[in-house]
Amino acid sequence: MAAEGGSDQFIDIVKLSPPAKFPAAFPEDLKVAPSLKRRRSGGDTWVVSVFVIIHVGVFIATMLVNDCWTNSNGDCALKTLGRFSFQPLSENPLLGPSQSKLEEMGALRRNFVTEYHQTWRLFTSPFLHAGLFHLLLNLCSIIFIGIHLERELGPLRIGVIYAMSAFGGALMASLFLQHTPAVASSGALYGLLGTLLSELIWNWELQTKRVSAIVSFVFVFVCNFIIGFLPYVDNFASIGGFVSGFLLGSVLLLSRKLELPKVPIKGTLFDYGVKSYIKLKLKQNLDRPVLRIVSFILFSLILAGCLVAVLHGININSYCTWCPYVDCIPYTSWHCQNGETSCKTMVSDDQMTLTCMGNGNFRVFPFTNISRTRISDLCNLIC
């Protein structure tokens, strides 16, 4: 302080720090967009919980209708379960109902969709499971992936993605149907997997556990796709659901990854560097709307195209000889190129003989009181 001419003049001396270099990590004022903040409250996972409960309820109802003990004359697996016992493993290796009961509950089948135009099956098949093994693997995967996504992204968007992926998977499966029933419950799961991949790609720099996320994705994807080679589970539903989930994830989940701090332009350029500022600005102004629009257009075109093809009764297996092997691995108990089956029935005393008209195989059963639908199941098994 210095006094001069009878008046006091105060001079504050402030030490100026040198300009900061662009930080290695983003500062606190460079905030993550609100839509990407983690949601940790347990109540945010109600959508996945509701869908899981519906799946379990539908499977219980399916086994109740199946009633193997009565309809199959006691020829069942785990007979101690009585009415809820399963069809023999030779008939359903996934511990589940018979073909006819899957069809009765709303499974997809070629002639039902293409000839009889029972389009309501597009909405019922995503809630059916081929058997207990399929149910457990599918629901465990949905809980593992779905709860994580719902906490991250909120119940509304995950609910929309789940429902639309299930429908998209059923549409895709309907284009590759054969003369055996198929369930499309894997479409919703693979829709969640597609959303997870979308989140990993578009928000890669914000991921803190990249390796564990990739390993989880690959493990769930491969395990569920392998079980899709078994009877009644449709891998084309998985493919359709995955594509739907990825595109919807790009539409609904992609948002601003970063929000620039509200500081003067001079300070922003001074603190973070011209190139970094321009790069962040371009991400905000270009990537988000373009990718949203492109993804939405692609999803709409694929959905509309599949719907039109299904309504016109188009079956791609008629033009693609190798397509059935995407959904099936030939085995002694089943084959991948199937058609309509017919059997000759002979009844004598307390025995019934079924002979396949296609390959000559026959089998003698120690009962005669059997329904027409059950005869059809046994005929498919023999042929």
TrEMBL record:
GO terms for cellular component: membrane. This is RHOMBOID-like protein. It catalyses: Cleaves type-1 transmembrane domains using a catalytic dyad composed of serine and histidine that are contributed by different transmembrane domains. It is a multi-pass membrane protein. It comes from Arachis hypogaea. Pfam families: Rhomboid. Belongs to the peptidase S54 family. Keywords: Hydrolase, Membrane, Protease, Serine protease, Transmembrane, Transmembrane helix. PANTHER family: RHOMBOID-LIKE PROTEIN 8, RHOMBOID-RELATED. Residues 117-253 form the Peptidase S54 rhomboid domain. It comes from the Eukaryota. One of its GO terms (biological process) is proteolysis. The keyword Transport does not apply. Its EC number is 3.4.21.105. It is an enzyme of class 3 (hydrolase). One of its GO terms (molecular function) is serine-type endopeptidase activity. It is found in: Membrane. Its main location: membrane. Serine protease involved in intramembrane proteolysis. The chain crosses the membrane at residues 46-65, 127-147, 159-177, 183-204, 211-230, 236-254, 290-314.
